[in-house]
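Lecture 7 notes: from sequence to structure.

We start with a single chain of 158 residues. Read the sequence below before looking at the structure.
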Amino acid sequence: MQNRYFIDISAYIKIRAIDNKKSLFNDAKLSEHFSNIVKSRHISEYYFLTNPPRYRLKAKDGKTSLFLVYSRYDLNEQIRVIKEEAGPAWLLDALKTGLYVPYFQSRDGFYDPDSFDPANTMYVAEVVEGQETYYCAHITDDSRALEPVLTPSQPFYH
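Now the structure, written as tokens:
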């Protein structure tokens, strides 16, 4: 019933998002990926937040986590702001690869030199191919952000 209630109250938001060409709420592959996380992590509540686009998740045991979800457009906006603010080159390079997603804990969810914490910013992306390509990361209490020295600027293969 809780899930049905969430669907009912969020219907208007979903319709507006779809009308605005935001396929995030209308993408079957992304929805399936998210549903798998909800089931496997025993998530009982979740809330969509913006800047950056993410869900705040609460498991049945009370633990909370975040599920970041970026489109290529969203990542490009992050890159644009980092360039405008003369941010670190390693950060730009890492985002351009699509292998990582940022979680800037600034007011607007974008890079801010005053609040930037390089040791708590970059997470390995899970790529979900749907109507668009999405770059996602599920951040839990035991997730560790990548240190700048461990974030390669180019993909590498063994």
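The first helix runs from residue 2 to 19. Keep this in mind for problem set 3.
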